[in-house]
Write a structure and sequence with these properties.
single chain, 420 residues, alpha+beta, three-stranded mixed β-sheet, 9 strands
Length: 420
């Protein structure tokens, strides 16, 4: 590789060995060549251990949900997970003991002897550094079986030489995400110290309002705390992926809306305010948004601004999600002929957006305001002082629609009088 260290082409080495093996007659048959091939095997084992240790430390195996580099490799090679873990340990020993790396890379330490040596370094690294020269010299000169007896004796003396208990691994914050054959993902892990406090506080800030709203919100009905915490975690992740305001992103979060009376002669005049970036929302005398720019098949920034100005947040009754936590919902679905316009859009948080699609609820724009409706079309409203714990549908009244609760008039939302 030009300008840097040369990189070993593993595929080329394997191809060359495969070609030599296939040729058969081209393979030397002398004792020296047999010894060289054994060194090649030892060197390859040392190289593999270094690679697997580096892969373990990279953490890239965790992206796919594997618990360790050994698991990742075993899943893809069909070989023993225990064997991969041993090679990772060999790589750690070579990283800790430079002369072991140099000698093993030259193919002078058998793979079995390297495994025995790495066991010493894993259990008593300080003693292994102290006795490195002796351990390496005997690994080169002794047969693997004899060397294993030497390392066992070394470990026994090391046990007697220290009163310290075996070090306990310090807990660290870690998460594993694995996927089943059915596409379900399982999350498990450990949150240590402040990490756990931060996550718990963030989830509690979302779950607590959900628990209070569960009585009146059918999207939360009968959901236990564990489910609400899962919803909260997904909400936090979804929120972190929202982009800054642009033609393709979420509604405005940091800009100033200047409300002006509609005047055709003034409609194209730019609006500016001191030390801020402003945009125009033109209203008529009734407060209806008239001029929000051109519409397209996507939600344009102008339409997003107008809907955000109108809705102020998720429109599902009782929900307090701000505009920055919401998406724009097509009231009449796009695939069913709905337009991408202000009068066909409403802000919904991820939870209620998913709920409305899944349970076939609908949103309509009535007199310029979004109205949430049950699957049968009945408007859904909350009366905060109702004594029952289950949201109920208004009584539609007689068939002629003359009943007091036919949905034609909004419910009385004034505070009930105190006293008799």
């Amino acid at each position: 590789m030009a300008g840097g260290p040369e990189v070993l082409d593993i595929d080329a080495v394997i191809s060359a060995l495969a070609a030599a093996t296939a040729a058969g007659s081209a393979i030397p048959r002398s004792g020296d060549d047999a010894l060289s091939s054994e060194r090649l095997i030892n060197a390859a084992a040392a190289y593999g251990a270094v690679c697997q240790d580096a892969f373990e430390r990279s953490g890239l195996w965790g992206i796919t949900g594997s618990a360790s580099a050994a698991n990742w490799l075993a899943e893809r090679t069909g070989s023993s997970r225990h064997g991969h873990k041993g090679r990772v340990r060999d790589g750690v020993a070579m990283r800790l003991l430079p002369s072991v790396l140099e000698t093993a890379a030259a193919g002078l330490i058998p793979a079995d002897s390297l495994r025995s040596l790495s066991g010493c370094a894993a259990k008593y690294p300080a003693f292994a550094v102290r006795d490195e020269a002796v351990l390496v010299a005997q690994a080169v000169t002794l047969a693997a079986r004899d060397y294993r007896a030497v390392t066992n004796t070394w470990l026994s003396h090391a046990d007697d030489a220290t009163d310290q208990p075996e070090p306990v691994k310090e807990p660290v914050t870690e998460l594993y995400l694995s996927e089943t054959s059915g596409g379900v993902r399982h999350l498990k892990g450990t949150l240590v110290g402040d990490d756990g406090d931060i996550v718990a506080a963030a989830l509690e800030a979302i779950v607590d309002p959900l628990l209070r709203a569960a009585r009146d919100d059918p999207s939360l009905a009968a959901k236990p705390g564990s489910v609400l915490r899962g919803m909260a975690l997904v909400d936090l992740c979804a929120q972190s992926m929202r982009r800054e305001p642009s033609e393709d992103s979420a509604p405005d979060r940091y800009r100033v809306g200047v409300v002006v009376a509609y005047d055709a002669a003034e409609a194209d005049r730019p609006v500016s305010t001191c030390d801020s970036s402003a945009y125009r929302i033109a209203l008529n005398a009734l407060g209806e948004v008239l001029d929000v720019g051109r519409t397209t098949q996507r939600w344009t920034l102008a339409i997003r601004r107008a809907i955000t100005f109108r809705d102020r947040g998720c429109v599902f009754p009782g929900c307090d999600r701000k505009p920055s936590w919401t998406d724009i919902h097509h009231c009449q679905h796009w695939e069913h002929g709905g337009h991408t316009s202000m009068n066909n859009g409403a802000l919904l948080c991820r939870t209620h957006h998913t709920f409305i699609h899944k349970d076939h609820w609908t949103v309509t724009i009535d007199d310029g305001r979004p109205c949430i409706r049950w699957p049968d079309g009945t408007p859904y409203v909350i009366t905060p002082w109702q004594s029952d714990t289950t949201p109920t549908r208004p009584d539609p009244g007689p068939p002629d629609g003359s009943g007091p609760h036919d949905g034609s008039d909004p419910p009385d939302t004034t505070d009930p009088p105190h006293g008799p």
